[in-house]
Amino acid sequence: MATNRTFTMIKPDAVENNYIGGILKMINDAGFRIVAMKYTKLSAEAAGKFYEVHKERPFYGELVTYMSSGPIVAAILEKNNAVADFRTLIGATDPTKADEGTIRKIYAKSIAANAVHGSDSDENAQIEGDFFFSKLERF
Ligand code: IDP
Ligand code: MG
Questions:
Q1: Residues 41 and 101: beta-carbon distance below 8 Å
Q2: In percent, how much of the chain has pLDDT > 70?
Q3: Contact (Cβ atoms closer than 8 angstroms) between residue 83 and residue 122
Q4: 33-40, strands of its sheet edge to edge
Q5: Catalytic: which of 107, 117, 118, 129?
């Protein structure tokens, strides 16, 4: 059964372009409640660990360098059917293929610098939220 939480990051390109406010507004307008949130920066080591599932993919090195290149916003979000609904809200990985009105269509620069992360399963939402937040940081 689908659970009601997902995990997101506003990625370095979107932070640098001052899109934090616009992206958070879209998230709130879509009915997600913020359970936990922080403004932080990943070391290359932490980014490598977070994206370890992609270790064998050709873009892994580029992804780790990029995700540790500047600050990010990490958050746990709550809504019915959170994982699937959030993936719909952000759109396809490649912004040129993302539907109109999605966060990536509006804010992403490229397939690598694609503005936001969204968990792909309930299991990964749990793992990714636990990567950034203790129990005391969730409300
Ligand atoms: P997702 O973020 O839509 O779930 P994944 O396939 O899980 O996409 O890839 C993780 C991240 O790796 C993407 O969000 C993007 O930043 C980066 N990425 C994915 N495919 C490519 C690629 O072909 N070239 C460069 N970076 C990529
Ligand atoms: Mg993914």
A1: no
A2: 99
A3: yes
A4: 33-40, 72-78, 5-10, 116-118
A5: 117
Question: What is the band of 1 on the pLDDT scale with cuts at 50, 70, 90?
Answer: low
Q: Which two structure tokens, joined as six digits, stand for 133?
A: 């937040």
Is 54 labeled as catalytic in the residue annotation?
no
Q: How many CA atoms lie within 13 A of 2 on its CB side?
A: 15
What local confidence, expressed as pLDDT, does residue 2 receive?
Answer: 62
The helices-and-strands tally (H runs, E runs) of the chain is 7, 4
For residue 76, give the CATH number of its domain.
3.30.70.141
Distance CA 20, CA 14 (A): 7
Alpha-carbon distance of 17 to 110, in angstroms, equals 14
- For the Cβ of 11 lying below 6 angstroms from any atom of ligand 1, the answer is no
pLDDT 10s digits, 119-131:
999 999 999 999 9
Q: How many domains does the chain have?
A: 1
- pLDDT, residue 97, reads 98
Query: What is the domain range of residue 63?
Result: 5-137
- Check if 117 has its Cβ closer than 6 Å to any atom of ligand 1: yes
